[in-house]
Amino acid sequence: MTASLSAVSGGTTLNVTLPAGTGTNVPTWHFDAQRSGLNAAEASLTTTNVNPQNFGKLFTYLLDGYAYGQPLLVSNVTISGGTHNVVYAATENDSVYAFDADNYGTGAPLWQVSLLNAGETPITNGPILPVEGITSTPAIDLTTNTMFVVSTESAASGTSFRLNALDITTGAHRSGSPVTIQASMAGVNAGTLTTVCLQRAALLVVNGSVFIGFASCHSGWLLAYDEQTLAQTGAFNASPNLVGEGSYASAGGIWMGGGGPAADDLGNIYVTTGNGPWDGQTAWSDSVLKFNAKLTIEDYFTPNDYAYMDCADSDLAAGGLLLIPGTTEALAGGKTGKLYLVNTTDLGHESATDAGATQTSWFEDDLIQPYPASCTDPEGNTWTTDINSYEIFGTAAYFNGSVYLGVTPTTATAPAGVRQFTYSGKLTQGNYTTPSIMENSRGTTPFISANGTANGILWMIDHGQPLQSADTQTTATLRAYDANNLTDELYNSGANSADVPGYGIKFTSPIVANGKVYITTGHDPVTATNPQGELDVYGLK
Which of 154, 267, 474, 500 has its CA 20 to 30 A from that of 525? Predict the structure, then answer.
């Protein structure tokens, strides 16, 4: 069964014939709990038909604010008596939308809800402009058709975080939803979780629990909630006793480049943490951490140059974490540009020359050599390590024996985009994309679509200069490459004026399902009054 429609995009009417949905779901950030970024059930898009002649922007849904989180998609959802493939988006205005993923119609959502109560607004003086509401990517439990969303709101009584559990067919709150997120811990640095923190990391829903990470405050937090009762079941503070120092006096924030905690098949939870103190006992900055479901630390890996990372604001949690499918290896990296491959059965702790890691390597030391860098901390200690001419702000994707990682250059001469690494117990450098992405763009997290091991396509958003960049903000570019040969660019949304999306939003990544690609961008710059966001939908024309 197919559906036909006419949609207006960039002033051009596109007549589109849409195949019936194949039932693919993207219920969480980067596709699954391992954060693989791989949809291996994509039968419609191929390396032959994805090109500027046959593929492009089909339509754009407007949103009431910016969507910093990734879209989610569930196929064959019954809403108001009709069955739809549904794409979901959440905005900084604390709104959640459900749209038909294939058919534009009038452009109206299937449903739209505000998570604000009477008298409430999003936060207006936070780090995200012009308002801060829903910043992270929600997560959906397909067994209960429930979406979990963290909202931030301001009222006369103060500001708060809330955990919302929504029915994906109506947008209505489940029983007991929402609950105010609260956490406190004894110690001179832990204190109480407040909205000074930023809830940027994507949510993780696994084995009946919701996991939520926080950063941008005095110390990072990771919280666990029971899906059914919304009762808090675990709380971790990254440094309850030791205080951060320097220009960014935080301690172990869970940023993960907009990505989120990962989980293995045994239910263990993994995160990376940001700058701050480390002692291997209660202070856990700049580390890969492994938890049980109650958030008790089971194991850790800390780079030997953690003191430099803290001193130079080169946190490991700038990037996310990939659990390589079919293995016990995890891959992480941050602002120093070094890649850390660690074994989840024995993460390796902290050791000279990082001997506990399976492998440490670089994105492009065959192209530009690492060089020594130093910094001096507030106590007058000087720390030195090797870094390279790029930073990692994304999460790697996996396909057919290869890992794909995107980076941000720190010099105009550094070739930096997405690179393929073949994996056979360790990583070997391979092809990389051109052109390079811009400095200060905060990198890219790729997504792979494939039909089994065939027709692998790497999708990436080149953010240009994204919203809130210190440089002039630019529109984003959606790019597609043959995953087996990243030198072959299949598609570039800049080739046709009708395909150009909105302004880039740092850390955002695409999703691919049922023959379509979905990205969120800014319809208006930050300087506009009440700027809108976009959900841009691409597919075969």
Answer: 154
pLDDT value of position 441? 82
> Domain segments of the chain: what residues?
22-540
Provide the 3-class DSSP secondary structure of residue 398. strand
Contacts of 138 (CB under 8 A, 6+ apart): 69, 72, 88, 90, 96, 147, 148, 149, 150, 203
Residue 228 CB neighbour total at 10 angstroms: 14
Tokens representing residue 31 in the block: 């596709």
Q: Are 169 and 146 in contact (CB under 8 A)?
A: no
CA distance 336 to 312: 9
How far is residue 506's CA from residue 171's CA, in Å, rounded to a whole number?
27
Helix, coil or strand: residue 137: coil
Query: What confidence tier does 63 reach under pLDDT thresholds 50, 70, 90?
Result: very high
**pLDDT category, 156, cuts 50, 70, 90?**
very high
Q: For position 22, what pLDDT does the model report?
A: 53
Beta bridge partners of 390: 409
- Side-chain-side CA neighbours of residue 495 (13 Å): 16
Q: Is the peptide bond prior to 466 cis by the omega test (within 30 degrees of 0)?
A: no
State mean pLDDT over 65-88. 97
Q: What is the average per-residue pLDDT within 503-520?
A: 97
Amino acid 74 reads V
CA dihedral 151, 522, 43, 106 (to 10 degrees): 90
Quick one: how far is CA 284 from the chain centroid?
Answer: 22
Q: How far apart are CA 293 and CA 289, in angstroms?
A: 13
Tell me which of 244-248, 260-264, 452-456, 491-495 is least confident. 244-248
- The token pair that represents 29 in the structure block: 């950030």
Instruction: Report the b/e string of 176-213 with b at 16+ CB within 10 A.
Output: ebbbebebebeeebbbebebebbbbbbbbbbeebbbbb
Report pLDDT for 221: 97
Which structure tokens are listed for 3? 């559906």
Task: Name the nearest CA neighbour of 276 among 299, 254, 253.
Answer: 253
The predicted model scores a pTM of 0.94
Residue 10 has pLDDT above 90, yes or no: no
The CATH superfamily holding the domain 22-540 is Quinoprotein alcohol dehydrogenase-like superfamily (2.140.10.10)
The per-residue pLDDT for range 331-364, each reduced to its tens digit, is 999 999 999 999 999 999 999 999 999 999 999 9
d(CA 78, CA 80): 7
* 106-139 burial code (b ≥16 CB/10 A, e <16): eeebbbbbebbeeebebbeebebebbbbbbbbbb
Angle, CA of 340, 341 and 344, to the nearest 5° = 120
Q: Does residue 5 surpass a pLDDT of 90?
A: no
